[in-house]
Write a structure and sequence with these properties.
Structural class of chain B: alpha/beta
Number of helices of chain A: 10
Largest sheet of chain A: 5 strands, parallel
Radius of gyration of chain A: 20 Å
Strand content of chain A: 15-25%
CATH architecture of the largest domain in chain B: 3-Layer(aba) Sandwich
CATH topology of the largest domain in chain B: Aldehyde Dehydrogenase, Chain A, domain 1
Strand order of the largest sheet of chain A: 7-6-5-8-9
CATH topology of chain A: Aldehyde Dehydrogenase, Chain A, domain 1
CATH class of the largest domain in chain B: Alpha Beta
Number of strands of chain B: 18
Strand content of chain B: 15-25%
Shape of chain A: globular
CATH architecture of chain A: 3-Layer(aba) Sandwich
Oligomer: heterodimer
Helix content of chain A: 40-55%
Largest sheet of chain B: 7 strands, mixed
Largest interface: A-B, 35 and 40 residues
Helix content of chain B: 25-40%
Shape of chain B: globular
Number of domains of chain B: 2
Number of strands of chain A: 10
Radius of gyration of chain B: 22 Å
Structural class of chain A: alpha/beta
Distance between the termini of chain A: 97 Å
Number of domains of chain A: 1
């Protein structure tokens, strides 16, 4: 009797997440992703300039609709993402563990923090306007109200080190207020970002609200920084990269072409376990003030 | 026998102002000579030279920044907020007491009607100092913490010289910063009078420093490593240059830049009020207003009637001597600005728009431009896209609210917008969709110290006025 052959496993193709779909890079390029010990993990799509532009188009198309949802609904949608990550916990723990070289319990703690962070931001959806808006007592018979609005399409260069908690901590504050994002994942640790995209695709987040590119922030970042249909850019992912200061300066210069709102790169990657400050959200908001006369 | 209904001249006396032959820089509490090449400031209504003003070069700017740093370290950042507040209240009171003097000087140096300088600019300046004075000892309730940034470099334009100074200086000082401010080269005089007011208020030396000059002086401020924060009001072109200059530094920046606001009139709008609002929107301050309603979007069904009434109203605007109390539209601020307005309006004609101005006699000397409107303007015309910064209105039409929103937002700018309709739900829906920092509904060009002002998109970032205005000058505001 012939000996039964070992089953050949089916490997996953890691792709981009753009406009709610999973395309390969238009460039046809991929790159090797290795675990913390140098072992081969996967080939990830290497996002190109064209992928970045496609992602901006998808983000722009989704923006008005997403901002037009009620704050309550955006909060529900974000909370649902937390639920789905909780539900797929083993997959996320494995992705973080292999990418960041953490022990099982440390990786569990990261996923705990990710879920809690999403729940925290979900709750802000229908509260931030009350905290950062104002009724203004002008000297005259006028109704005068200042409220925050999303700035529009936000490009995020996600942190290089914290591949899931850092990623979620930069996406969530942008989208909870009605922005849409194009995010470039950690270069060396892209797999948690791909897994997040797969979770988002099965959540209630509309396609195009979050677009995830795996690849090199130093290569893709300049195209996003100079893109005239991007309203803001978060450069935090440059922290700790080679030539970060020069790259950050060049991207800030490029961002001035259409006066993007810029979140500058810190000298070192922030401690993502700390409770975020409101500026993570308010830096990506515009204050609109509406006047109307009062009278009968 | 007919009755003559013409206005008699009603000139404001200039006896109240004492313009010196020459002015120095105000650094560390004293007036000093500058090391650049002195320049002249002229009365744009007469082209007469008013005074010679020192130009600050990089060494002068450096001295001013050092004075500001020293005052920040030793005095101002250590002073309890309640004491800082009292200085600001003092300044506000002196501005009120010397209000007419400031208004007349502003009108002479800028060309704006005395009626506006007296009734809008100066009272709002005083109100701004009063408002922010009260914040100085309440910052812990601001939402942005209580930690100031340090030395603020502030560069302001010529259209509202003293008001823009107040928008910059009052919140900066209230939060505990010290300032180096550069007024525009064509309108330095009220800022220099403000320096005297600081002396009169016994404000500690170095807390406010005023350096005069043109673009090079401004660039020296922006580039100075001892400046922690840049606040700029002016053109989008210069704003972008500043954003590039500070890239890679830790300097905080707020920019209040150009605009091309749409003033949208629906068919159910109260037509006379809307006509008045459109006139205020574009002809206030000769149209030298970044938030001017320079694009009229009028619903097609009422466009003809609206334009008839608008033209009739424009015919009653009195253009001329800024110091005449009956003048509605004063002088264009400079020959350079007049040339820009002239060039853009010529482009409007060349591109096929229909040009109209009321009959109005302009003075022989000085810089003047008649109130002008263009019809048959398309969204592609330069006069619909570029900021003219003069008394020139471009008229477009629309059929549906969606079309109005699309046309209004079809601009890289996003400073302000206007909506005229009797329907409340439509006002709120429009206000929500217009990508602009200030939306005036059934009113236009209203300003108040408690009300945040500032733009979306290429109109800049940051807000001036209100609680939000504190964010620009506190560590917690980033």
């Amino acid at each position: 009797m012939a000996r039964e052959q070992a089953r050949i496993d089916v490997r996953k193709t890691y792709k981009l997440y753009v406009g709610g779909a999973f395309p390969r890079s238009e460039s046809g390029y991929s790159y090797e992703v290795r675990d913390a010990k140098g072992g081969f993990l996967a080939n990830a799509a290497l996002a190109s300039r064209k992928d970045a532009r496609d992602a901006v188009v998808a983000a722009r198309r989704a923006q008005a609709g997403w901002a037009g949802r009620t704050a309550y609904n955006r909060g529900q949608v974000l909370y649902r993402v937390a639920e789905i990550i909780e539900d797929r916990r083993p997959q996320f723990v494995a992705a973080v563990r292999s990418s960041e070289g953490l022990s099982g319990s440390r990786a569990e703690a990261v996923v705990d923090a990710v879920v809690d962070r999403l729940v925290w931001y979900a709750g802000w959806a229908d509260k931030l306007t009350q905290v950062v808006g104002n009724a203004n007592p002008v000297a005259g018979q006028f109704f005068n109200l200042s409220t925050p609005e999303p700035t529009g399409v936000v490009a995020v260069l996600a942190p290089q080190g914290s591949s899931l908690l850092g990623l979620v901590s930069t996406i969530a504050p942008a989208v909870v207020t009605g922005n849409t994002v194009v995010v470039v994942s950690s270069y060396a640790r892209p797999l948690p970002a791909v897994t997040l995209g797969e979770a988002l695709a099965t959540s209630d987040v509309p396609g195009g609200v979050v677009n995830i590119l795996t690849g090199d922030a130093l290569a893709v970042g300049p195209w996003l920084a100079s893109h005239m249909d991007v309203n803001a850019i978060d450069l935090v992912g440059l922290a700790g990269t080679d030539g970060a200061a020069e790259a950050a300066t060049a991207m800030e210069v490029a961002a001035a072409d259409n006066l993007k709102r810029v979140r500058r790169a810190p000298a070192a990657e922030p401690d993502w376990t700390r409770e975020p400050s409101l500026s993570a959200m308010t830096d990506l908001l515009e204050i609109k003030t509406v006047w109307h006369p009062m009278g009968v | 026998m007919g009755i003559d209904f013409d206005y008699a001249p009603a000139p404001e006396s200039t006896g109240i102002v004492d313009i010196k032959e020459s002015y120095g820089l105000f650094v560390d509490g004293q007036f000093r000579d500058g090391h650049g090449t002195p320049f002249k400031t002229v009365n744009p209504a007469t082209e007469e030279v008013l005074a010679e003003v020192a130009e600050a070069d990089a060494s002068d700017v450096d001295r001013a920044v050092r004075a500001a740093r020293s005052a920040y370290d030793k005095v101002w950042s250590r002073m309890p907020g309640a004491e800082r507040a009292k200085y600001l209240f003092r300044i506000a009171r002196i501005i009120q007491e010397r209000g007419r003097e400031l208004a007349v000087l502003e009108s002479i140096d800028n060309g704006k009607p005395i009626r506006e300088a007296r009734d809008v600019d100066v009272p709002t300046v005083a109100a701004h100092f009063f408002y922010y004075a009260g914040w100085a000892d309440k910052l812990k309730h601001s939402g942005y913490g209580e930690t100031p940034l340090g030395v603020a470099g502030q560069v302001i334009p010529w259209n509202f010289p003293l008001l823009m100074l107040a928008w910059k200086v009052a919140p900066a000082l209230a939060c505990g910063n010290t300032v180096v401010l550069k007024p525009a080269e064509t309108t330095p005089l009220t800022a220099l009078l403000f320096a005297e007011i600081c002396q009169q208020a016994d404000l500690p030396p170095g807390v406010v420093n005023i350096v005069t000059g043109a673009g090079a002086t401004g660039q020296a401020i922006v580039d100075h490593p001892g400046v922690d924060k840049i606040a700029f009001t002016g053109s989008t072109g210069v704003g972008k240059a500043i954003a590039r200059s500070v890239a890679g530094t830790d300097k905080r920046v707020t920019l209040e830049l150009g605009g091309k606001a749409a003033n949208i009139v629906f068919d159910d709008a109260p037509i006379d009020q809307a006509v008045e609002g459109v006139v205020t929107g574009i002809f206030f301050n000769q149209g030298h207003v970044c938030c001017a309603g320079s694009r009229l979007l009028v619903q097609e069904s009422v466009a003809e009637e609206f334009l008839d009434r608008l033209k009739r109203r424009m015919s009653t605007l009195r253009v001329g001597d800024p110091l005449d109390k009956n003048t509605d539209v004063g002088a264009i601020n400079s020959a350079a600005q007049l040339a820009r307005i002239t060039e853009l309006t010529q482009a409007g004609e060349a591109e096929g728009a229909g040009r109209w101005s009321p009959d109005c006699e302009l003075p022989q000397r000085g810089f003047w431009f008649p109130p002008t409107l263009f019809t048959e303007v398309s969204t592609a015309h330069r006069i619909a896209r570029e900021e003219i910064f003069g008394p020139v209105l471009s008229v477009l039409t629309f059929r549906t609210p969606d079309e109005a929103v699309a046309k209004a937002n079809n601009t890289p700018y996003g400073l302000s917008a206007g909506v005229w309709t009797e329907k409340g739900s439509r006002i709120l829906a429009m206000a929500g969709q217009l990508r602009a920092g200030v939306v005036w509904a059934n009113t236009f060009n209203k300003f108040d110290p408690t009300s945040p002002f500032g733009g979306y998109k290429e109109s800049g970032f940051g807000r001036e006025g209100g609680r939000h205005g504190l964010a620009a000058y506190l560590e917690g505001g980033r």
